[in-house]
Amino acid sequence: MKIGYPEFEQLFYDPNIGTESSCLSSEESRHCIRVLRHQANDFIHIVDGMGTLYRCKIIEPNEKKCTYEITDTIPHWKQRNYRIQIGISPTKNIARFEWFVEKATELGVDEIIPLISHYTLRTRVNHTRLEKIAISAMKQSKQAKLPIIKSLTDFYQFINKPHLSECRIIAHQGENSQPINKWYKSGNDVIALLGPEGGFSPHEIQLTTSLGFNQISLGQNRLRTETAGITLMAIIQSMNFDDL
Known about the structure:
α1 (about 25-35) links the parallel β1 (about 10-15) and β2. It is built from six helices and twelve strands. By secondary structure, the chain is an alpha/beta fold. The strands form two sheets. Strands 5, 6, 7, 8, 9, 10, 11 and 12 form an eight-stranded parallel beta sheet that branches. A four-stranded mixed beta sheet has the order 1-2-3-4, with no helix packed on it. α2 packs parallel to α3. It folds into two domains: about 10-75, CATH 2.40.240.20; about 85-244, Alpha/beta knot.
């Protein structure tokens, strides 16, 4: 069944909406009042990053502290019946990894886990900057759910944790690799692992396989880490498209 959504041009983000403050941050207020020229009694749409959309009326159009009142609430807005978690090694060129975070957010990723594996060349990321990129992408793509971006995580610690997803896959070009639809079915939660520029080590592949991760191929061409991540996201979304 296709779901109808309210029409609007801009989304604002307030993680504290519903509390006593009921005002946008200084950055969001500036954009709302100075850039978009909203005035008192105008209606705007705000998301909390947790999946709820709010229709609000501006009370005081202050460009430093724009206050509003909530007039309507839509919980679980655009909520899907499956979750996508991606464990991915940060790229040496951080701009490529930031691009991945932006585009994966637009495509609806639920959780991103930056992994430090054997061949990872970058062992530091600016978590605050990644979250800002994700917030901007969430608003641009008109979503209410902000993906969780974990701190840098050791590969072995991550894969040895219990994972409840129906589908656990690792991208690897090998003789045992299969197309993603061999293991993933629409509506299922999925955890996908993507390695660094040098790929996963043989030991990492062997260990993940022993822990129930299935090897997948994303095509005949060798893809960059961030390209592989977006390709994977697009395939999963396409496989679930008929359920939207």
